[in-house]
Amino acid sequence: MNDGRLSDAALSVFPEPIAIVDRALRVQKANTAWTTTFVDSPLTETSLAAALAKVLSGETTRAEVTLETRSAEHTVTIVPVPDGDTRAALVHARPVPVREPAPRSRDERLPATLLRRVLDRLPVTVSLIDAEGRSVFSNDTRARLLGAAATEERESGTRALLIDPADADFVREVEARVLATGTEEIITSDVPTALGTRSMFFHLVPVEGEGEGERLVLCVGQDVTEQLRAERDLREQQDFIRQVIDCDPNLIFVKDDCGTFLLANKAFADIFGKTAEEIVGQHERALNEHARADGFLSIDQQVFATLEERTVEEEILWHTGELRWYQTTKRPLVRPSGEVHVLGCSVDITTRLETHRKLEEAATEVERRAVEAFRQAEAKAALVEELDQKLGIIETQHQEILTLSAPLLEVAEGVLAVPIVGAMTQTRAEEIMHRLLAAIVERQVANVVLDLTGLETIEMHTADHLMSIVRAIRLLGADAAISGIRPAVAQTIVELGIDLSGFVTKRTLRSAIFSREVARSAALARRR
């Protein structure tokens, strides 16, 4: 037998009002007959609520009450059914038939041959079973499912069970109860038939026979194999989609136009310390404090109003108290019914923003150090000039001053800055080139910035010295850039016709360093 729970397919084919009710007296599932018969929920009616409480508490395994509505009187049967780890109840309402006057003569009844043809055309199996368990009648639909067993049934008068053999004793027990109590029963079973194993839904109803006091069981069977297979395929598809979105580290969610969540993946639910199932049905304001929730809902309304995608950067508070930044894209999701929802996807950009902030701080620090280096270089250059005028310093001292006037500053990883202050002579150019080339090889330098902020004037031979240094740097495999060209120097370069088009130039040392850092970061990202 199935696990006792009625599937949606079984509910849909059942002709009378039927519903599954949980401990909170809420309808979990109901067929169309239930919703059309009971416009207002009957579960609050005193006698029905009391009977439900007894069944749901386990005090009794069956209860029956009479329920009167504006349109008709119903006999309501309540039995327990499993619902996962909890307990639920099956509520079955049968209208009390209004007795019609007995026909005046047999001639006024429906002819038996016509009735037989009608029953044989039905897509459901129909059979009548007597108190001894024998088959009194069966239609062609049942015979087709029985196959050869149907012929044997007719010839021998014995009954062929259209049921799983393992359920035979249970079925006979149910039939006996139907005859004894006069109440209807519902059973489901996977049935081996001439057409293969089929999932069947059986409705057993007590009926009066022709003889006085004769009681029969009318068994109506519905083949729900395809409906159950469709339900299973749908559940499998839903489980597959759930696994896919739960594997995505980005936040994925869907909300309706009221701000209620219709779907959420695991990554989104983790923010609130909940499961995805707990998020569904929650309103935005139930998950976030009102000011923050209002901001999220405002973006939603813009999407609904324009039916256009919106992308924003927003700060989201985790249940742990941590604040993280996300880039959220929201787009309209139009259902086949025309209903519009908001589909959202959020990417965590906290690390990216933190990296950008650190880069800016590093660039500021490099600029501060460069300014300090310029200040020191200018002070040292002034000292050199003063010593040259007063003492006529010796050649070794002169070489030391040359070194100090063009320091090699490692301003970033693999980046050397060479601030050039004062005039550029042949001797000084050779000294700078010698020290710089040695440092490139020794320190594995990838980028060199020649800063001319301290260069007051330039002549043709000075430009030649600079271009020679740049070419030498390139021969060693490093990139070279020139920064800090003053307006007066730039004007002189143009007037002298010096061609610097083949060289990378930047306005300030900071911009040169920053561009090198950006290029290096991009190269690292590509290698990854």
UniProtKB/TrEMBL annotation:
At the highest ranks, the source species' classification is:
Bacteria, Pseudomonadati, Myxococcota, Polyangia, Polyangiales
Protein name as it appears in the record: PAS domain-containing protein
SMART domains per the record?
PAS (SM00091)
Keyword set for this entry?
Phosphoprotein
A Pfam family (short name) is STAS
**Organism source for this protein?**
Polyangium sorediatum
The record's section on PANTHER family has:
RSBT ANTAGONIST PROTEIN RSBS-RELATED, RSBT CO-ANTAGONIST PROTEIN RSBRC
**Residue span, PAC domain:** 310-361
Superkingdom to which the source organism belongs: Bacteria
- Please report the stretch or stretches of sequence annotated as the STAS domain: 405-516
Query: Which residue range or ranges hold the PAS domain?
Result: 111-182, 237-310
Alphabetical list of InterPro entries matching this protein: Bact_StressResp_Reg, PAS, PAS-assoc_C, PAS-like_dom_sf, PAS_4, STAS_dom, STAS_dom_sf
